[in-house]
User: Which sequence fits this backbone?
């Protein structure tokens, strides 16, 4: 059996490879870069631990815990300090703790009486039934009010997607919100009654899911998966094209100055959407991947700064703070990294991880590191009472950080479904298809491994017509899962 090719050694590709290998199916993981992990990047230096990409994994599905156990990483799992549960949102140019209970909501200074009334009114707002796809902003203003959009949701969208609520689609970017309205007619009612269904499915809502990392940062996970995949991972090897030959796939790649070809029984594409658009695919009927170049990934810079404890007035106890655009700061938000995980800073110090750029200020993300540090320190001075210079500073620039699930994004997902039907043995997985979070990517990798294993078993069990697989070359009809 020729191995399954996996393009991309981010968390999606490594998870898929790990589970295929455990099923006895050989894999080759091709990675264009010189390290595994994709956007996951942890750096230990001078007693600080900087996390540039994701900071935590949300345990929204039982598959996350399974992967950690299967990879033998239970003992290295690091749960956050229980005192670090508070989340702050900036209003009146200072961080205000988000209410942790319904009573807290009615007494918080985060929202005016008008916004609190809008929440009481929400269960009586009729659900939209005309099927129109709304932006997050339209949805929130219709069901709640402008203040919620400007002072809460805008900050949340910047924190999760580095995105713009006027562009993101509620059904594509926050599908659970849309489903709450569809099923229960109201977000508040859905929040209450939906909890039972989630429990039955073994799922946990994102706002309640336990989050965790590892003793030496998230990079521990991809590094461990890579070790277990052994020779199956090829770094510095960029896949440039695919060709369907008979029942197999011929893959073209460039490794340094060398070009090569390899035959694979199936291919999982676990790279980025923009790199997918650059891939040449030869198959019958012809496949075009150009449309994926339209998927926008705004630039983001991660700015990790270490301070002496006495140089920061705010206690910084909690997860971090989100900043709405209307508050007029340049940073999108800050994670109180060493409050979450105390081993992220030496004793008597703290680590703050801030993000700059996104859809809000894309031009700022590309500033040189000293300018990024300066604008971050200027904002942190006002917001957290930071004085003095950081004694640890590290920035990483992601020119294309996070895909924006904008209004109309469903057409890209439909196109992927169509191509998978047209080109048997080619599978798409990862953050550009199944949700942008790390946990979404892990679940996507697990499911990709299952889909490939099932497809291979079916393909082995008989000709496609008999096994129920559509014969290769027959015209495809798009189907939506
Ligand atoms: C700054 C930032 C902060 C984030 N914070 C969080 C967070 O706190 N929590 C959370 O849950 N999520 C967070 N995310 C999102 C999450 O980290 C990602 O969605 C997830 O890691 C994506 O994994 P992936 O494997 O799908 O893709 P990637 O990590 O992008 O990996 C894709 C890999 O494919 C390789 N590749 C592409 N094309 C080719 C080719 N032709 N040949 C060979 N290799 C190729 C790339 O080099 C890359 O290594 C964050 C993302 C960013 C950028």
Assistant:
């Amino acid at each position: 059996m020729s191995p399954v090719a996996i393009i991309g050694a981010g968390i999606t590709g490594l998870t898929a490879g790990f589970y295929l290998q455990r099923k006895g199916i050989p894999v080759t993981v091709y990675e264009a870069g010189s390290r595994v992990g994709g956007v996951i990047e942890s750096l230990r230096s001078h007693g600080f631990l900087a996390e540039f990409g994701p900071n935590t994994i949300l345990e929204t599905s039982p598959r996350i815990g399974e992967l950690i156990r299967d990879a033998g990483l239970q003992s290295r799992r690091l749960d956050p300090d229980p005192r670090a549960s508070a989340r702050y949102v900036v209003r009146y140019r200072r961080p205000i703790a988000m209410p942790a209970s319904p009573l807290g909501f009615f007494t918080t200074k985060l929202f005016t009486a008008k916004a609190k009334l809008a929440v009481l009114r929400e269960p009586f707002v009729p659900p939209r039934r005309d099927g129109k796809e709304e932006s997050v902003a339209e949805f929130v203003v219709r069901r709640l009010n402008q203040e919620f959009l400007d002072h809460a949701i805008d900050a949340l969208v910047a924190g999760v997607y580095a995105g713009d609520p006027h562009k993101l689609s509620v059904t594509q970017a926050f599908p659970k919100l849309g489903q709450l309205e569809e099923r229960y007619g109201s977000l508040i009612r859905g929040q209450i009654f939906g909890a039972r269904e989630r429990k039955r499915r073994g799922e946990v809502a994102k706002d309640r899911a336990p989050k965790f990392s590892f003793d030496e940062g998230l990079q521990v996970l991809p590094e461990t998966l890579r070790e277990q995949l052994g020779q199956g991972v090829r770094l510095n090897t960029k896949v440039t094209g695919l060709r369907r030959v008979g029942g197999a796939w011929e893959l073209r790649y460039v490794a340094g100055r060398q070009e090569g070809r390899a035959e694979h029984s199936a291919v999982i594409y676990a790279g980025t959407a923009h790199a997918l658009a650059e891939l040449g695919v030869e198959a019958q009927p012809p496949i075009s991947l150009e449309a994926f170049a339209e998927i926008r990934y705004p630039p983001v810079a991660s700015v990790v700064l270490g301070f002496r404890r006495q140089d920061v007035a705010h206690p910084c106890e909690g997860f971090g703070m989100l900043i709405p655009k209307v508050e007029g700061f340049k940073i999108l938000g800050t994670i109180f990294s060493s409050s979450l995980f105390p081993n992220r800073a030496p004793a008597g110090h703290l680590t703050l991880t801030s993000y700059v750029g996104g859809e809000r200020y894309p031009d700022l993300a590309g500033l040189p590191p000293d300018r990024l540090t300066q604008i971050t320190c200027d904002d942190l001075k006002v917001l957290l009472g930071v004085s003095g210079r950081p004694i640890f500073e590290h920035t990483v620039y992601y020119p294309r950080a996070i895909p924006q699930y904008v209004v109309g994004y469903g057409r890209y997902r439909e196109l992927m479904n169509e191509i998978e039907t047209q080109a048997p043995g080619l599978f798409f997985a990862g953050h550009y298809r199944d949700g942008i979070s790390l946990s979404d990517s892990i679940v996507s990798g697990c499911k990709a491994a299952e889909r490939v294993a099932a497809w291979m078993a079916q393909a082995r069990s008989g000709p496609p017509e008999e096994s129920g697989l559509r014969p290769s070359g027959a015209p495809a009809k798009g189907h939506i899962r």
Observations:
- The pocket of flavin-adenine dinucleotide is lined by residues 7-13, 30-33, 38-40, 53-56, 58, 238-239, 270-272, 275, 300, 302, 398, 401-402, 430-431, 436-439, 441 (CB under 6 Å).
- The chain has three domains: 4-38+219-295+406-467, 42-61+76-83+298-398, 111-201.
